[in-house]
Amino acid sequence: MKVKWQSVAVGLILGDGNLRPPTKRKGESLLDIKYSDRYLPYLRWLHRVFKPIGVNAIRPKEEYHQHRFYTKPAKELGKLYRLFYPKGKKCIPVEIGSLLTDPVSLAVWYMDDGSLDFRAGDHFNACIATYNFSRADCELLRKVFLVNFGLKVKIHRSTMRGKVYFRLYVSAESMGEFIRLISPHILPCFEYKISKVSQQPR
Prior knowledge:
Low-confidence stretches: 198-202
Shape: globular
Distance between the termini: 26 Å
Oligomer: single chain
């Protein structure tokens, strides 16, 4: 299935992708993409997706049991950096509603930072760790889920080591639609994040 690299980039920036600061002369940024060897098929898929803007070879980081590659610098990535990192720290831009519109962005983000909260018979929710984002950021995301995708999402607060973090939970009533939207883009190595839900009666 052909996907737009721009949509995948948005999902990666929300998730684990490392977007480098733009160059001063041309305002171009690049993505530094790395995953554990377990997810090498995912990394290879991303490598193919970003070929239109240029990529270097996938190389191992043996001491970390990882592989990585870089995209070539691109002005569109530079624009995304300025939106998501206006002061050098990642945040959710007010323009997120016009950026997070493609289900593939949701799927990539979920493959990166999602998990399945599943208890047989009575509970199944998709959760996305948004630990780097503020409550206000999460409110923006919650609205985008509803307006752009028709998905009801709740914000859960948790405290770890004395620090407050937030997570997004897809409500049970929206789980069927959430899985329908993302499942065409979920790679086999991540199917464990949706398989139990897809088996639930609708």
